[in-house]
Write a structure and sequence with these properties.
Blueprint: E1 4-5, H1 22-31, E2 36-45, E3 56-57, H2 60-78, E4 84-92, H3 97-110, E5 114-118, E6 121-123, E7 130-132, H4 144-162, E8 168-169, H5 174-177, H6 187-200, E9 204-207, H7 209-214, H8 221-229, E10 234-237, H9 250-259
Parallel strand pairs: 1-2, 2-3, 2-4, 4-5, 5-8, 9-10
Antiparallel strand pairs: 6-7
Helix pairs in contact: 2-3, 4-6
Bound molecules: zinc ion (2 copies).
One zinc ion binds next to loops.
Length: 268
């Protein structure tokens, strides 16, 4: 069974959205027999993002300080533990040059061990209006502008996959997990995303948080089957925001992957 996660969150600086400290997360990972762990607090920066949580930044120098302190804190905690630790980020990707320049500057200055490509937003093409899809979930999408923003969300996932920036891609059908884009009109987007993975062989995670929330991982098993049979590398992620969620539903994910005959597993 996979004895690591590369997608975990902690309460970094009292800013990030994990519920336990880095030390508590590392101790728990050791306790359950993990051989290694990736610490991947969010890196959410965009000049036009709405500040809805302390980890959302529209000011780049503040985002940079947070990121530097985060990696420093992880490295410091690592020295107190035996487990192998990688210090990374789960990054909200945006396609514009202004975002890419800022992101590249962060990579250069902060030097994380790895970055996970992620996307929690629906937005207008000019990136002036950005909505976190968690806050759109559960409501029927009727108006055209929201639909357009969601189409940009799917296109953004494709751009994220093909950007070449990321070690692997997080929960890319989170929208469906949240009850958005479940109608058949969105299937063509899901197939476009599958095609981007097939072309680039960018690794993807099976995010077990979805199993806890709604019985379905992200991506859904039918997409996992498509990608696994095309030889796209995969790994299981718990996306743990507290110690109890480390390793959650790994046994279920393992048995499904065995059933699918998965041979390409991603590991550092
Ligand atoms: Zn996420
Ligand atoms: Zn996450």
């Amino acid at each position: 069974m996979q004895d690591f996660t590369y997608h975990s969150h902690n309460s970094s600086q009292g800013i990030a959205d994990g519920h336990n400290t880095c030390d508590e997360m590392l101790s728990r990972a050791e306790e359950i027999g993990f051989s290694e762990i990736g610490v991947s607090n969010h890196f959410i920066y965009h000049p036009n993002i709405k500040i809805e949580h302390s980890q959302d930044f529209n000011n780049f120098s503040k985002a940079l300080d947070y990121a530097k302190n985060d990696i420093e804190q992880t490295r410091e905690a690592t020295s107190r533990h035996k487990i192998k630790v990688y210090a990374g980020f789960e990054v909200d990707f945006f396609p514009s040059k202004i975002w890419r320049d800022a992101f590249e500057k962060m990579l250069k200055e902060v030097k994380p061990d790895y970055v996970i490509g992620s996307n929690h937003n629906a937005f207008s093409k000019d990136e002036q209006n950005i909505y976190n899809i968690w806050r759109l979930g559960g409501k029927p999408i009727k108006d055209e502008s929201t639909k357009e923003y969601l189409r940009n969300h799917w296109q953004n996932i494709i751009d994220c996959i093909t950007s070449g920036y990321f070690t692997f891609i997080a929960h890319f059908d989170l929208a469906s997990n949240l009850g958005l884009c479940t109608e058949s009109e969105w299937d063509e987007w899901k197939w476009k995303v599958i095609e981007a993975f097939k072309q680039t062989k960018t690794p993807f995670e099976i995010n077990t948080n979805g199993i806890r929330r709604c019985g379905i991982p992200s991506p859904d098993w039918w997409i996992v089957k498509e990608l696994v049979s095309a030889g796209v590398p995969t790994l299981i992620s718990d996306d743990a925001h507290n110690t109890n969620c480390l390793g959650q539903y790994f046994a279920e994910a393992e048995s499904k992957l065995a059933e699918l005959g998965c041979k390409k597993r991603f590991k550092f």
